[in-house]
Amino acid sequence: MADPSSYRPQPGQIPDSPGVYRFRDEHRRVIYVGKAKSLRQRLANYFQDVAGLHPRTATMVTTAASVEWTVVSTEVEALQLEYSWIKEYDPRFNVKYRDDKSYPSLAVTLNEEYPRVQVMRGPKKKGVRYFGPYAHAWAIRETVDLMLRVFPVRTCSAGVFKRSAQIGRPCLLGYIGKCSAPCVGRVTPEEHRELAEDFCDFMAGRTGAYLSRLEKEMHIAAEDMEYEKAARLRDDIGALRRAMEKNAVVLADATDADLIAVAEDELEAAVQIFHVRGGRVRGQRGWVTDKVEAVDTAGLVEHALQQLYGEEKGESVPKEVLVPALPEDTPALAQWLAERRGSQVSLRIPQRGDKKALMETVHRNAQQSLALHKTKRASDLTTRSRALEEIAEALELDGAPLRIECFDISHLQGDDVVASMVVFEDGLARKSEYRRFQVKSFEGQDDVRSMHEVVSRRFRRYLVEKSKTGEWDPQDGEDGPPEDDGKPKRFAYPPQLVVVDGGQPQVAAAKRALDELGIDDVAVCGLAKRLEEVWLPGEDDPVVLPRTSEGLYLLQRVRDEAHRFAIQYQRSKRGKRLKAGPLDEVPGLGESRKQALVKHFGSVKKLRQATIDQICEVPGIGRKTAETVAAALAGAVPAGPAVNTATGEIIEDENPAPAGASSERGTEQ
């Protein structure tokens, strides 16, 4: 624990202007980022008597070892810089909302020649129009199923679309009228895109004009005695009305707004957001966070706004944002939102009427979300704490191992030898800290030697990071530490416990690696698969934990996760090696141009037969590159013909599999 007075700046050094400040710990990691209208006044608050500070603030300032700041010209710039640094440094004492689920959205891929309607999760992609997010994927599919009757837009995958185009026959949706079947040319690309754009307009809330147009067409068809057409239009109108009914009108004035509500207690907070478009609730999402800093409701709202709109632009930012409490810098936040939208944004608290009533509904959802989260978390916390205590007791550790790292080796009969390192903090997997290694110092199969190499490399990197504080000097010939930028380092955090997948030999190798580096404050154990025995360095007999032990269950989860991660990496390496073809040997030829060449000619076989002038016809391929490709393919040995082993017949294949990609044998280890 550091004394804040040891790094407190002199009052005259801190400018009295807007800016963003960063607290760093003794390893120069950024642990907190904040902004202020006046840096001098705000930073002075942190250097009061520690006993008078909020407990979380006191923990932060005693963990920190230095503070620095950056002056900006306006509060809006400070807001943007604070958001950027929180995203870049991931400081441990800042409030960071985490989604309690991955919410699905309805997406229209307008970036494709034939736009597709589908359910999408995860980060947004350029050129794709999104609606939602929705609470359930089935709600999207029900809405789409109703609307495809009127807007028969493609919903099939690329593989199904390509297959239907090849055989000249559409899929089932094309036969029952729920797809316009652009795959077989029933509509032109332009007509299909117009259908997709009408679908987007309807989903965006512009429903009245479209329904009026359909009703007018229905009446005209009836007057002209085209009764079948009139009946179809009548059914289309009914389908659209049913789709609209699934999103009840909550605001009568066709408002576009986001409503944000917060439910909180001393330790945690839950945020719920309702997305209202055209007066209807079009989507819902929620977050939960630990209150790792001293923050009130207004501060939680500010963090939520930053996370919700930090990556959004245009119409994704609504005209109106309704919140339960206004942040301290409301004018700056409103200006920041307006810049992201491109027009004025109203940020306010609803006072009366339908908007206040809907805000109360959103708040009830936030309360239920927090209660559900705490019910789940209570059980999880109790179980994880008991597991860590059991491990500490069984291995005779000084304290609970809050950070556990596990190493595993994987290979296929000595080829593609790789290793994995997984990290569990407080009994939970921390996937951002996972690391992968390639074993290159020797050839062949030697798990013990591989384990020694990997553990040595991991902790040598830790010592290099540690050298920045002057606590350790790298040996001669060791690479110097990279220039510090305050970001979370790859190997900066030491574990309290290292677990290896294996028995006595692997444990001894890991312990020897730590001893050679002079590290004596990290415990080591191994978990053998056969009897799930825990092995300690230098012990002839294993530690046997009860089968019902939560500690053993946690060690098994850590070991199995390391095994999964190692096998995943080993398979990907082997797959890349087996898929390697003659084009991979062409210098300067990237993946995009390789795909363009194969797509243009249809196969490597036809590309090999092409002239240099024909290769130059491919977009992005110049004459020099074409000559290099032709020379490389001329020197490559073509793969032998495939043979039907039952008949002895030679199989003609325009896309032969790469050599060595036949059956695989062996067991992954």
UniProtKB/TrEMBL annotation:
Residues 208-243 form the UVR domain. It is found in: Cytoplasm. Gene3D superfamilies: 5' to 3' exonuclease, C-terminal subdomain, GIY-YIG endonuclease, UVR domain, UvrC, RNAse H endonuclease domain. Residues 259-514 form the UvrC family homology region profile domain. The UvrABC repair system catalyzes the recognition and processing of DNA lesions. UvrC both incises the 5' and 3' sides of the lesion. The N-terminal half is responsible for the 3' incision and the C-terminal half is responsible for the 5' incision. NCBIfam families: PRK00558.1-5, uvrC. This is UvrABC system protein C. It comes from Streptomyces erythrochromogenes.
